[in-house]
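Question: what's this shape?

___
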Amino acid sequence: MAELHQKFMSVKLTELHWDHTFCKYALAYIADRAIDSSHPDRQGPDALSPDIGGNYVDTQLGVTVESAPGTLILFQPSERHGTTISYGACNYGYAITFSRRLIDGYQELSDEAKAEYFIKPMDSNEEGVVYE
């Protein structure tokens, strides 16, 4: 356990943060990962290995999830987290985070007289099916 803690504490992180989201959990899927081998930290005898950089860090658990194609991460955005510095690593994928701004905007429209225009199609039945 001490070795894990030491490895975790030696990782260079981007700014740690937490997100104000509507849902308790969020998903991040890494479809692909590319490494820029021309990055200075990826060259020479002390070059970083491909698994270093751009990894998810959960500070509460004290773990780093190494990014790899096909990785799915479920996390709590309201808990403090971050990523390691990329060193030329680039992850491609999708995140489903349920932004708090979406629900705030929906609630704001719900309070407006125009809400039905934006929330329900004007030519719809109760299920929201539009008839032309």
Remarks:
- The longest helix spans residues 100-110.
- Confidence is low (pLDDT under 50) at residues 1-9, 128-132.
- The chain has three helices and six strands.
